[in-house]
Amino acid sequence: MPPLGLPIYGQPPLAAGDRRAPDAWRSLAERAGQADPAGRPPDGDAPAPASFGRRSFLQVLSASAALAGLAACKPPRERVVSYVRRPPEVTPSLPSYYATALPAGGYGVGVVVESHEGRPTKVEGNPAHPSSLGGAGLPELASPLELYDPARIAGFRRGGRPLAWSALLDELSEVAARLAQDGGARLRVLAEPTSSPAVAALRADLRARFPGSRLVAWAPVSEDAAREGTRLAFGRPLDVEHRLATADVVLSLDADFLATEGDHLRLAREFAARRVDAAAMNRLYAAEATYTVTGGAADHRLRLRASEILGFGRAVAAALASAHGLAALAPLGAAAGGAQARLAAAVAADLARARGRGLVLAGQRQPAAAHALAAAMNDALGNAGATVLYREPVLLDRSSGPEGLAALAAEIRAGGVDTLVITAWNPVYTAPAELELGALLRRVPNVVYLAAREDETTAVAGAVVAAAHPLESWGDLRARDGTASVVQPLIAPLVASATELDLLAAFLDRGQVGAWALVREGWRRRTGDEGFDRRWDRWLADGVVAGTAAPPVAPPLDGAAIAAALAAAPPPVAGVEAIFAPDDKVLDGRLGENAWLQELPHPVSKLTWDNAALLSPATAARLGLETGALATLRLHGREVLAPVLVQPGHADEAVTLPLGYGRRVAGAVATGAGFDAYALRRGAAPWIDGGLEIAPTGARRALAQTQGHFTMDGRALALALPVAALPGALAELEERRGPLPSILPEVDYSGEPYRWGMAIDLSRCIGCGACALACQAENNIPVVGRSEVLNSREMHWLRVDRYYEGPAEEPASVSQPLACVHCESAPCEYVCPVNATVHSDEGLNEMVYNRCVGTRYCSNNCPYKVRRFNYLDYHTVHAPQLAMLQNPDVTVRARGVMEKCSYCVQRIERARIGARVAGGTIGGDQVVSACQQACPAEAIVFGNLADPASRVARLAGGERRYDLLHELGTRPRTGYLARLRNPNPDLA
Amino acid sequence: MSALFSRKADGRLKLALGLAGAAVALALGGAMFYWRSPFGTGQFHPVVQPIQFDHRHHVRDDQIDCRYCHASVERAPSAGIPATEVCLSCHSQIWNKSPLLDRVRASWFEGRPIRWLRIHRLPDFVYFNHAIHVNKGVGCVECHGRVDRMAAVEQVQPLNMGWCLDCHRNPAPRLRPIEEITSTTWRPPADRAAFGAELMKRYSVHARVSCTTCHR
Predict the structure, then answer these.
(1) Distance of residue A818 Cα from the nearest chain B Cα, in angstroms
(2) Has residue A772 got a pLDDT over 70?
(3) Which of A360, A391, A422 is the last residue of a domain?
(4) Are residues A876 and A981 in the same domain?
(5) Which ipTM score applies to this complex?
C-alpha cells in the first residue's frame, strides 16, 4: 500500500516530509534505489503505521478501491529496448534458423534450431542429416527446456569455494604440471563414448602429455554387445547399419529400433515408408519381453522372456538350415520345441523367401552371441551388403561397459588414482550397484566433475565445473554413418560454464583457447587451408560436413567363432527375470530433470512422472499385485521399493525395470519421481538378471497414467486391419467418411482457396510421442505436474491414444495421435455462450482466448475430448528465465481459459503473409504443423485440402481414410487412415 | 390501524428501482464510453522520450524516409526500433557534440541500449504484422498520423478492435499506391473509393476478419 497522504481518522496526520510526490527522494542513495544509511527501505513504501485499526483499514480500503479504477487505466508505459549495434543477421520479430547437432549416445543427430532474437525456442530435425532426415526424437525436441533450466549449475567451484574460470584454469594447470611429473600415472579420465573428432584430438594430446594416464569410457546404456558381436563374427568390432527401405521381412530379436535404439529416427522413417502400400508392405516380427514401440508396430509380436530370445533366434537359424538349405547356419542353430518351433519355422520360411530383402536385428540388451548370430543369419540370407552394412566403428571408444568402470574402482581402492576427471553423466548414480562408486570417489584426492545440474556425483566431487548445454557450445559430432557435423552455439552461455573440450584442454594448459578454436583448427588441420573459411561456413549452414560418411566394409564371416560363442552363451535365467531398460523418455536418467519429458505419457504405458516395475497380468496375478501396488524388489541381496504396473503383453515371469528414476540427489523435477533400478543392477549382468524376488507390501502409490481406458469397447476408433481384409473393408470405410444428413445449416467452403486439413496415417504411426512433445514446444503448453495429471488436468493439445486389441496376455496395439480435429460442424461452437470458439472461413475451429470466460461447456460438448482448460496459472509460477523459452508467435494463456490445437495457425499466418507479400499463394504442402515436422515416421500430413495436388488432399481422398466418430456428423477436417497389418498367413 | 405502507410507497419503490437501474446502465455505459474515449485508448498524449527525438525535424525538414530507421517494416511483423548505430550513422558527423545527443553517444560507447517508451501498444494476444500492411498499400500515416508534425509522437488512432475491423471490412478508402507508402503529404484523388477499389485489385488485397488473423 503506497502512502496516500490522506488524513486518517484517529491518527495523527502524517508529517509533512512523508507526504511526498511519487518522484520525491530524500537521499542520493534512495534515489539510486539503495537503502539509505538510516535503514529506511529503498524508495517507495513508508513503514507500516504503528497501529492499523479497523477504521483506518476501512478508510484506506475505500480510498484505494476508489483509486484502483483510475490507477488501472494507466499501466506504466512499456519500454522498447533497441539494439546498440544490431547483428546483421537478426531482424527483430523474424525468427532465424541454425543447423547444429545434438549428442545422442555419443553420436550426433542433426537438428535445425529456431531462434527468436537470439533465443533458441524450438528444435526441428535437419533433413540433410543422415540420422534425422527431418524427424526429431524426444531428447532433441526437449532440449530447449534443458537449456533454460533454472536449476543448472552456474560457474565453477573447488572444495565448495566458487572460482572464476581463469582461477580454475590456474589450479588445473598446477594439478596437471604435478601429474605430468610421473607421466600422469595417477590421472584417470572417466568419459562417455563420443564420436567427436575434436575430443579425439584432445585425447591424443592428453595421452602424449600423460602417457601413464588412462581413459575409462562408461555409458550405462551402451552398444558394447553389438560391437562385441561383430568382433566375434568378423574378427574386429564393427558398426552395423540397418537399412529398412528394401527390407521386406524384418526379425527383431529384442531390438527397439524404432524408438530407443540405434539410428531410430532414420529407421522409423524407412520402416513407415513400407507400411502404406498394400502391395509392397514389409513384415515385422518382434521378439521381446517388454512391450515397446517396436513391438507395437510389429505384425507379429513374439512374447518371450529376454533371456529366451537368443534361443528363439537359434531356432529360426536351425529352421533356415534344415528347411531352407542354409548349411552355414546349421552349427549355429538349435531347434526349439512346441509353439516356438512353429513360429520359428514360419519366420524362417518368410526370411528365406526374402533373401537379400530381409533383415535380422539384435537388441542392445541381448548378449554378443545374439548379435553374432544375427550377423551370420544376414550373411547366409544374402542380406549383408543390401539391408545390413558394416563400418569401422565411429565412436572413439570400442567398449564402455561395466568392466572398465570396475577396473577403475579397483585402482581407486588400491589408492592408485590422484586425479579423476569425470565428463560422463553422473557415474555415482549409474554405476553398477556393487562398486559403491560414491563412497570410493571420496577417497580420490582430486575429483573434477563436469556437470550441468546437482546430482549424486556433484555431492562427492571436489571440483565441479558447470557444463555448457549443447545449444550454447562449439563442438563436432559424427552421425552413425560417420557423417560429421559441426556443433554451433545458438546463444552465449546463459551461465558461466565450460564444455568437455574446454575442460580437457585445461589439462594441456590450453583452457583459454576455447572450444571454437579447438574445433575449427582441428578441421583446418584435417582439410587444409585452401578455401577453408568458405568450407567452414558451408558446413555450419548445412549442418553436415559433406562427404565424411565412413565407407562400408565387407569382411569375411568367421562361423566357427560364432558357434563357439553361442555354445558359451548364457542359458535362460532361473527364477523371475529382471530386465533393465533405458526409459523411452529420460533415457538413462540424464533427461530426468526435463519436465516436458516427465509429463509426456510413456508411449506404451502412458505413465507420467514415474517409472514402475512392469510385469505381465499373469505374473501380477500370481504375486497378488495390481497396478499401483508397491512391492519390494530383491535381487542378489539388494532391494528397492517400487510401484508395479501391469503391462499387457509383457513376458511372464519377467519384470522390466526402467532406468533413470529414483534419484537421491536431484533438482525439483526429478526428485520423487519413480524408483532407482540402478540400485539392483550388477556389472556382471547389466541387462538381464535372474532370481528377482518380489514381495507385495500392501502399500500403494498412485500412478499418473493419462489413459485409463485401453480398449475401444467395440467402437471403431483406431482402425487396424490385415492387408488381406482391406478390399472387403473398403465399403465400410467408405461409410465412415463424408457428410451425413444434418439439420444444421450447410457451410459452403467450395469457393475458398484454402481448406486446411490434416491426415494421420495410422499405418505409419509408431506411437513414439514426438508429435505431442513438438506441439508442447511450439505452442507454449505448460507442464502441470504429477498431482494435476492425477486430476486429469494435463494440458497436451495432442495426445497419442494407445489401444490394445486381443487377449490381455498377448494384445496387439494401435497408436492414434489425436488433437482437435477441427470439425466443420463443431459441437463446441454451439455451446459457447461468448463466441470464444468460432469457425474461420478456411475451416479452422478457432479458439479466442481473450473472449473465453471459462465455462468449459465446449470441453463437455467435445466428443473427442481434446480441449484443455487452464485450471491454474501455470505460466507465471515458473522462473522468469523460462519466459525465454516461449514461442513469441503464440499467446501464453492465462488461468481460466480454454485452449486446444490451433492447427499451428501461427505457421499458417506466417506462410500466408510471406506468400502475400511476395504476391503468390500458399502452396498446398507449404505449411507444416509442428507435429508433422517432428514425426520421424511421416505419419502426420497437414495442408490445403482445396489443392487436389497437395499430399493431404491425396491422403484424405484415399481408400483407407475414415473419420473418427463419423456417426456424430461432426465432419472433422482431420482424417485418419486405417492401419494395415501384414500378418503371415501361415501363422493365422 | 394505519396502513403499513403509504400510498406513495409503490411509486417510491419504482423510482428507487428505476434509479438503481439507471445507475447501473450509466455505470456500464460510462465505462464503455470511457474505454472508447481518447482517455481510455491513450490517444493524443504526446510522450516525452528519454531522448528528445523530433520527428518533425527528421521527417519534414530533413525528408528522411520512415524506412531509413524503421528498416524492417516491409518484411517483418515489427517495423523495427532503430539501433543506436543508426542514429550515429548521421550524428557521428553532424551535431556530434550536441548535448541533446549525450545519451545516444553514451549508449554507443557504453554499449547500453536506449530504453524508449512504447507509444503504440497492442495487447499480447494481438499479432499485428507491419509487412503485410505496407505491402498492400496501407500507408504509415493511416495508423500513425502525421508524424512529421509531432514534436513528441502521440497515438492518434484508438487501436481498438473495432477500429481494426473498420478497415479490414472496408480497406479501399485507406489504400494508397505503394510508391507513396511512407509519404506524409500524399493526397488521394477525388474519388477515393473508386481509386481504392482499383488498388485492391492491383495489390490483390484480401483483408481477413477471422479471429486467428490477429489472435493466435
Answers:
(1) 20
(2) yes
(3) A391
(4) yes
(5) 0.90
